[in-house]
Each structure stands twice: as C-alpha cells, then as structure tokens.
Amino acid sequence: MIVRTSYFLIFFIGLWFTLTHIFSFVKEECIFLSSIAIPITWTISIGITFSLFLLYLFFVAKDRTFRDIIDQILPRGYDVPLDVLVRDFVVFLMFVFTIYWYHPSFYSHLNAIRREELFNGNLYLKTNEKNKQDGQFIWIEVKTPKEILSFEGKTNELKTLINKEVHIIVYQGLFSKYALVSQP
C-alpha cells in the first residue's frame, strides 16, 4: 500500500504543479477577480479535494465498502494501525496542498485551463450593490463594451483601485468568468 500511496501522491503533486505552474494565470502584479463568490470557490475546492481522497480510498487503499470509508473519516483512539496513519497523512497532505498552496483556489486553477479572452483594456472599477457587510470581499462592477459584469475580489487588494482607471483582462474560464486587474 505504501508504493500505491507514493504513486498517488506523485500524481496529486504533479497535478498541483501542472495547475499552478503550466496553467498559471495569476501574475505577481495582478489581482484576481471571480464571477463566483470566493468563499464558494473555496468550498468547491475542498469538495474536489475530498472527492480525490475518496478516489484514493477506493482505488489505492482498496476500501471498497461504505463502512470502510466511514471508518477512515471517523476519529480513532491511540492504537492506530500503520495503514490508517498513512491514509491520515495522505488526507492531511492533500488538504494542505489544496488550502495553503493553491492561490486563489483549486477551483480557480481548474477554471483557468480554458482561457478565452473576452475583454482586454482600461476601465474604471466601481463597487456593486451586491456587497456584503463582512468587509473581507467586495463585488466590483465592470462595464465592458458588450456587457456589464460583476466580479468578487479581496477588499484589502481592491480598496485603493475603486473609482480609478485600471487595466483589466476578462476571461471565459472552463466553468465561469474571471478577471485579472493591474494598474496601467
């Protein structure tokens, strides 16, 4: 099982490397904006990671029954066999890679596999009425020549750019639209 687990981790880290380096879309000087609420993209990312872990349990660890899979998820005591510790280590690594090293989120990197440019130019950023009261994220309205789009971004990154002219590139991703903003 250790060999199969090693192969799976190599596959998962290879997938991570491919998405973050080859399909990398966020440049150092750009701010990422999403047409889907950012907390929802993180929820989708965690769901994708958990699904990959279930595939790991089914194909690599050979846990073929529902009870075996539930036994892996439930907390255990101090007398834990080595194979269970290996599975716990795998899920820990998967979630650390997904949450810590996938900026802005795993879903956003999957979405960026398709990169069809819809608009590229300078525009003024304006806030949208959809803004929530938590203050962590802010909705931005982007008026392109063809349509009016709404994107969500981090407030601390965007607060200095509101009502200013910025360079924006709007893309149609695999699942939804996203934008990259930089100062002209």
UniProtKB/TrEMBL annotation:
Keywords: Membrane, Transmembrane, Transmembrane helix. The chain crosses the membrane at residues 7-26, 32-59, 80-102. This is Uncharacterized protein. It comes from Porphyromonas gulae.
